[in-house]
Amino acid sequence: MNPNTIASPSTNSNIQVTAANKIIRIFDTTLRDGEQSPGATLRPEQKIVLARQLAKLGIDVIEPGFAVSSPGEFAAVQQISRELQGVEIAGFARAVRGDIDAAVKATMDATRRRLHLFISSSDIHLDFQLKKSREQVVNIAREMVAYGKQFVDEIEFSAMDASRTSREFVIEMVEAVIAEGATVINLPDTLGFALPEEYGAMFRAVRTGARGADRVQFSAHCHNDLGLAVANSLAAISAGATQIEVTVNGIGERAGNCSLEELVMAIETRKSAVGAQTGIVMSEIYETSRMVSRAMNFPIAYNKPIVGRNAFQHESGIHQDGLLKNRNTYEIMDPEAMGIPRNMIVLGKHSGRHAIKHRLAEFGIELNEEQMQDVYDRFKEKADALKIVPDDVLVRLASETTEQQHDPYVLVDLQVLAGTQRSRIASVTVRERDSQEESTFTGTGTGPLEAVIHCLQQAIPIGATFDDLELHSLSTGEDARGEAAVSVVHNQLRYSGTAVHNDIILASAQAYVAACNQLIMSVGMNSGTEAVKSAKSG
Q1: Which of 316-325, 339-348, 476-485 is the least confident region?
Q2: Which of these, 169, 243, 263, 276, is most buried using a 10 Å CB contact count?
Q3: Topology of domain 22-296, per CATH?
Q4: CA distances (Å), 235 to each of 25, 63, 199, 241, in order?
């Protein structure tokens, strides 16, 4: 087989896992380097939850934190080491005895562990940060690796800022630590400075020039300051690295680290060209991304590869038409294989009749040609105003054209009473499609949104779990409009709804109703009442 054959994304029929594909170990530093992102601090209990998910994702090595930095950090590293017995745990430490002692003690109960030591190597770091000579730094590195080797068999050594260090000195430092027992050599692009060809060349030079290099593994740790972290990591693999250090969603200091999901899917999608594979469980990628985003309160950019909201959505009519005929026309990966809900068509001003008709048919709405033209004309007007036309608005347009309510439930009225000294109180009125009856429900909550959701859960009793809410401002000023995106989960399936309004509470309520309506219409198309019964019984 031609090693550059591009695989079919639906079947991967042209990709064969052979002996030629080397295994790339994934070292995750989300809980250490990722947490160093400004504002991304995690509580110890959050770290433990995320570590469990990382293990479920199939991470080979987890770096759970910097044990010496605080008692809470030490306790989190210690508990993760005790609990996750199937994953190698890395204790992070500066080339300082106190750091090493804390890392060794915190990871003592791990079944498999390593000590990860680092010290700067570039002249600019030595002159202005450490204020030490090259000879002094080499001696410190040698002494601290030897000290750590008393406690731990596996020692990873990182020459910080290696990509801005002379090749000769990197080789000198690597030879010194290998002689003292280092088993993994990490050559970081700490400032995201290197170009792929430069980074790959450094690995080749060190692997061929350093005595003992054939006895150790090589690892890459890339930052994304120039947007090259994934490209540099792939270059390192090509140059012989067998471990890549990553973070979920690419979080990390400044512009972040090499993105786990981007690197893994680049390897998976172009496996035969890269000549490598990983042990990552792809179906856990999306859930892991969401969990990290929530825990750190870091929203994911719409255009973020793999896990971004737009990564597998298409508005262009040409693209939509191609996708409806064959998904491979405009997609090189299967989002559902990564646990991403299938929702590839986004309706906006660039959408065509084919996509609109297809989306309405998914909700059991069939229109004749005259009705379709009317909906299309109304749709274009809405698209100019809203940019993206959510499902509930599209269904409402069909209802206006046919003079028949298609939504199982419509939010008729919403009232919220908020204050500083009391619980928030809300009431909602909804109209049910089949009976056309309007009913009012009341509820309370610690916040106005919680009160509204409690009302709506009474009004639409389908047993769905409120899963997620995203709020985005679409403009500025006092008349700014907000977009709310709500997802609910039923029988382990996720259903989403969006709405736009100047009142973000109302937008959230409308989005929740839209998500529930999508669930109901997906479960059963006959009527709102029958669908609810079906959903309940399901």
Answers
A1: 316-325
A2: 263
A3: TIM Barrel (3.20.20)
A4: 15, 23, 7, 9
In the chain, the amino acid numbered 513 is: V
Residue 219 has pLDDT above 80, yes or no: yes
Q: What is the pLDDT of residues 360-374, one digit of tens each?
A: 887 778 899 999 999
Contacts of 47 by beta carbon, 8 Å cutoff, 6+ apart: 31, 35, 64, 65, 76, 80
Residue 530 CB-half CA count within 13 A: 7
Cα separation, 534 vs 538, in Å, equals 6
With 0.85 as the threshold, say if the pTM is over it: no
DSSP 168-230: HHHHHHHHHHHHTT--EEEEEETTS---HHHHHHHHHHHHHHSTTGGGSEEEEEEB-TTS-HH
DSSP track, 126-177: IIIII---HHHHHHHHHHHHHHHHTT-SEEEEEEETGGGS-HHHHHHHHHHH
Question: How far is the CA of 454 from the CAs of 309, 385, 425, 508, in angstroms?
Answer: 27, 31, 10, 13
Hey, how many other C-beta atoms are within 10 angstroms of the C-beta on 197? 11
What is the assigned CATH class of domain 409-537? alpha beta
Domain residue extents for the chain: 22-296, 317-402, 409-537
Please choose, from the candidates 253, 187, 186, the residue with its C-alpha nearest in 3D space to the C-alpha of residue 224.
Answer: 253
Convert the pLDDT of each residue in 167-211 to its tens digit: 999 999 999 999 999 999 999 999 999 999 999 999 999 999 999
- Specify the amino acid at residue 39: G
Q: What is the pLDDT of residue 220?
A: 98
Mean pLDDT over residues 484-495, rounded?
87
Residue 451, Cβ neighbours under 10 Å: how many? Answer: 23
Query: What's the Cα-to-Cα distance from 439 to each of 174, 254, 414, 445, rounded to whole Å?
Result: 73, 51, 12, 20
CA distances from 359 to 50, 398, 501, 516 (A): 36, 11, 23, 16
The Cα–Cα gap between 64 and 107 comes to 10
Q: Kindly state the DSSP code that residue 282 receives in the 8-state scheme.
A: G
Q: Over range 149-172, report the average pLDDT.
A: 98
Question: Of residues 67 and 385, which shows the higher confidence score?
Answer: 67
For residue 427, what are its two tokens? Answer: 């009431």
Is residue 127 over pLDDT 50?
A: yes
Q: Which helix (H) or strand (E) holds 116?
A: strand 113-120
Tell me the per-residue pLDDT of 314-339, one tens digit each, with 9 for 90 and over.
556 666 567 667 777 777 898 889 98
Q: Is 468 helix (H, G, I), strand (E, B) or coil?
A: strand
Task: Compute the distance between CA of residue 155 and CA of residue 184 in angstroms, rounded to an integer.
Answer: 6
Give me the mean pLDDT over the 289-294 stretch.
95
Cα separation of 280 and 302, whole Å? 24
**Distance, CA of 29 to CA of 260 (rounded, Å):** 10
